[in-house]
């Protein structure tokens, strides 16, 4: 039997084409990243892809307690040190560093230093952070009001969402351009882009301030999640509700309709954890059975084929396992079982599945290197590449290359915490691109 101190994956995150894992070890925690690295989202100091998990050197022994992905950026929370780190594509201020530069290794955010963080969510280009005291901060792109500040002005560093003062925010979620939160009373608020009903107020308008979702009166919601343009809530009893964009059957309602207010999902009961992808949704029930529906062009639903899943299907390849963690990116999915096995499937063009190749997978494939009993933390530490922090304007993202990496036999010392890079100008053409 594995010992409690044996390394295992305790946290997952998926971006558009990259992945993060948080590993517990006897000496602390370790953040790993792999997949697409073009925008610095892997945190290794360069713009290269990685087809296998690699430890993020600057976060070794930093006490990371959670990891999070936006489309092309990443974040980590170090609970003990009360620090929040961000890195990757910096356009629109989504990194919260006070400027719009790309950042290629994790950078601590001074505006959040010393705060205990309860929940973090990353959208395509905006970020939400809820503190342990129930305050909500937002930053990044805001053209649809997704920061919840009552305006459409982008935020380059964390701003307090004052509209929710008096409420204790306990969890947050981000879609592409909309946001969600749940309060200690189980209320669900949504804001931002609302064309397909993903705000849940019965309308199709953007909302620049947090708006109470309709149809959940008397329901105490315990967790929220978002897909690209759809919203998910799960109550204390495990009942699941979805609303928003449904053209690919991602709402798990058995149809391709948009829904403008929350509607209960009947196909899956006693839901324990959920994950919204770009156009698909995954849900694991209290028994650890994993279910999927939605867009499946690259096998991201894990049901063994590439046809869209309109009626919710169980992921039969994991029928003998009990899934306890699941995360979805744009086109790929990852899961961890109660015995510590790690599985990934879906799109793999940038190596985001971690299987040392670029072959897509229609069914879950175990990654032994991240499964309990197979994680070699000594090797991961030796392979970590220390680099000097740099940030570049998006227009110059390939201008800086790290000088060298340590020799294969060297175990590098951990550097001091990184500092915030200086601001750089961004051309208007870049700001209009995303």
Automatic annotation (TrEMBL):
Gene3D superfamilies: Regulator of chromosome condensation 1/beta-lactamase-inhibitor protein II. Residues 401-434 are annotated as: Disordered. InterPro entries: RCC1-like_dom, RCC1/BLIP-II, Reg_chr_condens, Ub_ligase/GEF_domain. It comes from the Eukaryota. The keyword Repeat applies. Keywords: Repeat. Residues 6-272 form the RCC1-like domain. RCC repeats lie at residues 29-80, 82-133, 134-185, 186-237, 238-287, 288-339, 340-403. Pfam families: RCC1, WD40_RLD. This is RCC1-like domain-containing protein.
């Amino acid at each position: 039997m594995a010992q409690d101190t044996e390394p295992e994956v305790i946290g997952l995150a998926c971006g558009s084409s990259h992945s993060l894992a948080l590993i517990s070890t006897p000496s602390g925690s370790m953040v790993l990243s792999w997949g697409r690295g073009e925008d610095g989202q892997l945190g290794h100091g360069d713009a290269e892809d990685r087809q296998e998990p690699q430890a993020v050197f600057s976060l070794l022994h930093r006490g990371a307690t959670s990891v999070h992905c936006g489309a092309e950026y990443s974040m980590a929370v170090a609970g003990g040190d009360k620090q929040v780190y961000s890195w990757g594509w910096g356009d629109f201020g989504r990194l919260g560093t006070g400027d719009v530069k790309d950042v290629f290794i994790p950078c601590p955010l001074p505006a959040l230093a010393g705060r205990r963080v309860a929940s973090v969510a990353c959208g395509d280009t905006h970020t939400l952070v809820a503190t342990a005291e129930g305050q909500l901060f937002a930053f990044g792109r805001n053209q649809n009001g997704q920061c919840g500040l009552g305006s459409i002005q982008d935020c380059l560093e964390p701003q307090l969402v004052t509209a929710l003062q008096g409420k204790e925010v306990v969890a947050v979620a981000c879609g592409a351009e909309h946001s969600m939160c749940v309060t200690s009373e189980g209320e669900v608020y949504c804001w931002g882009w609302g064309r397909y009903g993903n705000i849940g107020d019965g309308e199709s308008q953007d909302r620049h301030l947090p708006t109470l979702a309709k149809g959940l009166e008397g329901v105490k919601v315990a967790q929220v999640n978002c897909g690209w343009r759809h919203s998910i809530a799960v109550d204390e009893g495990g009942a699941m509700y979805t609303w928003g964009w449904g053209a690919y059957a991602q709402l798990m309602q058995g149809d391709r309709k948009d829904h403008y207010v929350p509607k209960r999902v009947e196909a899956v009961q006693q839901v324990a954890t959920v994950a919204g992808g770009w156009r698909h949704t995954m849900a694991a029930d209290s028994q650890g059975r994993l279910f999927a529906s939605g867009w499946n062009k690259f096998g991201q639903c894990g049901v063994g084929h590439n046809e869209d899943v309109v009626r919710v299907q169980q992921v039969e390849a994991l029928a003998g396992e009990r899934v306890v963690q699941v995360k979805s990116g744009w086109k790929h999915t990852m899961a961890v079982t109660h015995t510590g096995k790690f599985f990934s499937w879906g799109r793999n063009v940038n190596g985001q599945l971690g299987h040392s190749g670029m072959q897509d997978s229609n069914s879950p494939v175990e990654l032994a290197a991240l499964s309990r009993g197979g994680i070699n933390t000594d090797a991961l530490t030796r392979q970590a590449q220390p680099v000097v922090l740099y940030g570049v304007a998006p227009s110059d993202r390939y201008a800086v290359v790290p000088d060298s990496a340590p020799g294969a036999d060297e175990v590098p010392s951990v550097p001091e915490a990184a500092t915030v890079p200086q601001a750089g100008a961004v051309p208007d053409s870049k700001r209009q691109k995303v």
